[in-house]
Specification:
By secondary structure, this protein is an all-alpha fold.
Length: about 190
């Protein structure tokens, strides 16, 4: 009788562990789906912003074309539209130009010691032009990183040596380990 009771308890524990395991797995799957969905929304938002800027430029160009047909291409409205187009293109150009400068600075052996948040962001945007799939995959895998941490991750994934990364970013051994942990990479050193 005691043996039957012990077997019943063991079986109840087994079912409890199975239920708990299935619940944990289900929770992990739900969290993964939610994170994937959130990341997709962020990518879509970024794409929408770029598309909206381009659509705005196209709409302004179309309106300017209409004004030219009407002989009002020198009107106040046409001048304002041209100014808005120039502003949008200038912002995009400045970002890419700054990103390219930061990229070339690193290639020449420079450091990020005097960089600001915008410089790290512009670097990533420029680097995305050079290697879109690489940057998008990193952004997918690490959607919450700060621009500086994301830059660090780019260097890691591009297989820069530890000493080179420390030099580029002006960090100590402890700062390197902390940043490596922050970006979710195991410390192999």
């Amino acid at each position: 009788m005691q043996e039957e009771y012990d077997q019943g308890i063991a079986q109840a524990r087994l079912w409890h562990y199975i239920y708990l395991s299935v619940s944990v797995i289900l929770l992990i799957v739900i969290v993964a789906i939610l994170l994937h969905h959130r990341h997709q929304q962020r990518i879509e938002k970024m794409k929408r912003a770029v598309s909206e800027s381009q659509a705005l430029v196209n709409a302004h160009l179309y309106r300017i074309e209409e004004l030219e047909k009407q002989g009002a291409d020198g009107s106040k409205e046409a001048k304002q539209l041209r100014k808005e187009i120039e502003t949008i293109r200038q912002r995009q150009g400045e970002m890419i130009a700054n990103g390219k400068e930061r990229y070339e600075e690193i290639v020449r052996g420079g450091t990020t010691i005097k960089w600001h948040k915008k410089d790290f962001t512009d670097f990533a945007e420029y680097y995305q032009i050079l290697n879109a799939s690489f940057i998008l995959s990193l952004r997918y895998a690490h959607p919450k990183l700060s621009p500086r941490s994301f830059f660090f991750l780019i260097l890691l994934k591009k297989r820069y040596e530890k000493e080179d990364i420390k030099h580029i970013m002006g960090m100590s051994d402890n700062a390197y380990r902390t940043m490596k942990s922050r970006v979710g990479e195991e410390d192999a050193s």
